[in-house]
Amino acid sequence: MHALAALTDTFSGEVVLPGDPEYDSARVVWNGMIDRRPALVVRPIRAGDVVSALRFAREQDLLVAVRGGGHSVSGQSTCDDGIVIDLSRMRGVRVDPDQRRAVAGGGALLSELDSEAQKHGLVCPVGVVSHTGVAGLTLGGGVGRLQRKYGLTIDNLLSVELVTADGRIVHASADENADLFWGVRGAGANFGIVTSFEFRLHPLDPMVVAGSVVHPIDRAHEVAALFREIAENGSDDLFAGFALGLAPSGDGATPELAGKPIAALSVMYSGPRDAAEHDLAELREFGPPVVDSIAPKTYLSVQEMNDEAMAWGHRFYMKSAFLPALPDHLVDLLVERVSNAPAGAEAGLSLWAYGRAIAEVPDDAMAFTGRDAAFWIGAEAFWDDPAIDDRCRDWGRAALADVAPFAMTGRYVNDVVEAGEARSVYGDARNARLVELKRAWDPENVFRLNQNVQP
Fold first, then answer.
1. pLDDT on residue 249
2. 40-43 and 83-86 strand pairing
């Protein structure tokens, strides 16, 4: 208590303890499966507060969890009996439209970065759920609808300010602490608490063309073939995703498909409006879909389309992999797997086209792995009943076991739920470099609630 009193004397943010009225809300994170009780939650408002909190944690030998947006699928943004350094009071985004730069606070959300950049007709490529935290998304890579056009979020990261394990505030960029900047881009949670991000921005018209076409599952091979064609020959302006799942039932459902397996192709076209019809012609000519929601929309509304489906509080599990190709035999396995999705859950398999701007960055430019992949594939399940936890996890694991013979080395770290998977994420050579970097910047492994690179 004496040490805690000393912390509050130098700490200008909030300190939330068990028994405080806010404690239960302060410890909640996005994934409803995670129910942990930290010894305290601190909410800094400046980098100096982060230093104070980290110093307190080390003096008291407390496990340290860092929370940006709270979206960690594995729940590593909280802990039992340790300290949660919650950056949610360090939000805000500043945009310099002339320099096409944005600076985001460590607790900023994607919605803030999107909306502030779009006020000036600009954009940073980020993820697809607007209430995701900028920090967690960026430090793991940052995939999204603009990735083939403008690259990953980390490909547009210019610099960071972070608090290191020994309590220093340092900057990292291509010109300053370049080795650290290499590691931050793909394995960043291992090296410090990032309190500020500087991003490059790109021009983007506020209006795009986006939506999905949905077909019965018996057309899965045809939809997959079209997806492959778009991925190989489509415009850089055209994002494409292929999904297999169960059509929703209840209010607003399409009667002929409700509750049945479906194959869907989702797109976002971000190029010139007068070229949209040409670039979407093949998709439009493909069969009559049961559902066609492709239409002009604002980019900001597209970025919010998944927000309700991905709302806080649902139980969630996923596994993913990178693929060099999408063979027909794998499509057969995916169709069979989705047809046996667990009852009581919303479960499905989805693929995103990689390549183009992602692949143009040299593979050794940063810690991120997977640049030579043709596709990302993920198995995801949402549910609310704890009684089916094991069933949903088993389904996700079995789905990726089907995929494993077709997969490449490396995984997208932001999707990895199980602990102790760092080597499978980064591969032997990259992991060895990360170990040396960890020994230089965090030799005592203070930042270990992540896909941990052990020093």
1. 74
2. parallel
Question: Which letter, b or e, does each residue of 1-24 get, where b requires 16 or more Cβ atoms within 10 Å of its Cβ?
Answer: eeeeeebeeebebbbbeeeeeebe
**8 Å CB contact between 7 and 53:** yes
Q: Rounded to whole angstroms, how far apart are CA atoms 239 and 253?
A: 25
Taking the C-alpha atoms of residue 396 and residue 377, their distance in angstroms, rounded to an integer, is 12
Q: How remote is the C-alpha of 302 from its chain's centroid? A: 16
3-state SS track over 7-61: HHHHCCCEEECCCCCCHHHHHCCCCCCCCCCCCEEEECCCHHHHHHHHHHHHHCC
Is it the case that residue 166 has pLDDT exceeding 70? yes
Mean of per-residue pLDDT scores for the chain: 95
Tell me how many degrees the CA angle 277-278-284 measures, rounded to the nearest 5: 60
Find out whether 69 and 107 touch, Cβ atoms under 8 Å.
yes
Q: Rounded to an integer, what distance in angstroms lies between the CA atom of residue 137 and that of residue 33?
A: 20
In this prediction, residues 193-205 reach a mean pLDDT of: 98
Backbone angles phi, psi at 235, to 5 degrees: -65, 150
Between vectors from CA 230 to CA 227 and to CA 236, what angle results, nearest 5°?
Answer: 135
Q: Is the pTM of this model over 0.85?
A: yes
Residue 419: its pLDDT value, please? Answer: 83
The C-alpha R_g of the chain, in whole angstroms, comes to: 22
Ranges of H-type helices in 78-215: 110-118, 134-140, 147-150, 178-187
- At 126, which amino acid appears? V
pLDDT tens digits, one per residue of 17-62: 999 999 999 999 999 999 999 999 999 999 999 999 999 999 999 9
Please state, in angstroms and rounded to a whole number, the distance separating the CA atoms of residues 240 and 212. 10
First-to-last C-alpha distance (Å) of the chain = 32
CB 213 within 8 A of CB 257: no
